[in-house]
Amino acid sequence: IYEKADRLLFMPELFGYLLTGKKYNEYTMASTGELLNAKTRDWDFDLIKRAGLRTDIFGELVQPATIIGDLLPEVTEETGLSGVKVIAVGSHDTASAVAGTPLFDKDAVFLSCGTWSLMGMELDEPILTDESFKYNYTNEGGVDGTTRFLKNITGMWLLEECRRIWAKEGRTYTYAEIMAMAAAAGPGRTRIDPDDEAFAHPADMPAAIRDWCRGRGKVPPADDAALVRCIFESLAARYGEVLDNLRGVAPFAIERLHVIGGGAQNDLLNQLTADACGIPVVAGPSEATAIGNVMVQARALGLVGSLARMRDYIRRSVEVREFLPRTK
For 9, 127, 128, 288, which has the most beta carbons within 10 A of its beta carbon? Predict the structure, then answer.
């Protein structure tokens, strides 16, 4: 297949091609393939050649808010849609999520909290230092040629896998019940390392967590409520660790953390995160990815101007909640 390939398309671009017949590569998505030059924001053909890859399959990079084209006639006929433009957005979901984050000022960092968590900051230029390499940060593309300097962290995967096992065992909890369980459990005695390989894809997540604890001489969570509390406290502690490392490379003093994604609705986790990080946490919007996507489309159609203006609309249109760190 590789030898016969005409072009490399990431998944969002494949959908764009199927809708319009146009082949392109979108900047934010391409940046996650590790074959761009972080400084020039273009394909690094020297690196591509050194990796033994063909150079002819890499196409023109387009920026978010580029109109790709109209729907193909056969798509128009099948869907009944006419006059519809297909627009390249920040097609990596975190790129859209960050664009949809109502960042108040330049002293804030973001935490996209879902199945996986991504903590970082929006910069004008990448950070390419030994320290950023040591802590495994990545420079990914953002809207308006910005850099998303971030760290990947395990997120609600831990809880989702626990819920899957509990359901198989006949115990099904709503998220409201899970929040109540965690609150009632009170502060836990044990924390885990959410990024440990043991939790990457175990057959039984609750058993994996308890085995991890026993193997390190820690007290395993006694029941489902204690497990949930352990997960939330461990995630918050990990967020605090990553933020401390981020402070060592950030070009500004970090004074605020914006939590977006599904985790923005988790009040307990947000409060624990504020406590662990020692700075205010601003939670919301939970649907930042969809909002950022829509706003970039609006920009492409001339309905809104700069990224700052987009965020001003978002800030005035969504409700956020603030969590202040509690003194210990």
Answer: 288
